[in-house]
Amino acid sequence: MAVTDGVRKIAGLDFASVTPEEFARLVKKLSDKEIAAIARDGALRPRVLREVFGRVERQFRPDAAGSLKALIRWRITGSGDNEDAVYETAIADGACAVREGRSDADPRLTLVLADPEFLKLVSGNVGPVKLFMLRKVKIVGDVALAACLTRYFDIPKA
């Protein structure tokens, strides 16, 4: 597949200078094929995932989470030679912490989805309920938590 302008823009992105809203607009313009091309790139995919998860703690809304205590495991399914990427988001005591990889702890919620759906979800371009209805996300555990997960974070709108 030829590299498109959308893929080139993401590859050349200085994530430190891009707001979540700008990132959301970039993702909105990408086709599923372009996101799949990013997902197959062994250097670009981890860079994008690290940046997205690196922003989660800053976008956390402790006021909305209240006394919520939950470990959320994200498994972004790999394609091509790339393995699944696993991240965990721990919410407790009004704080949010993210770690790469799978811990031995039992998550309250596990979300399994492909790269296009993941990027669309975290950029505010699709909601979790719609993904579930379209069978684009597998939910294991607390379905109610999954349905309201986005309210605990400042999700940009493209």
UniProtKB/TrEMBL annotation:
Pfam families in alphabetical order: SCP2
Q: Hey, what's the signal peptide range on this chain?
A: none
Record-linked SUPFAM superfamilies:
SCP-like
Q: Where is the SCP2 domain?
A: 62-153
**What InterPro entries does this protein map onto?**
SCP2_sterol-bd_dom, SCP2_sterol-bd_dom_sf
The name this protein carries in UniProt is Acyl-CoA synthase
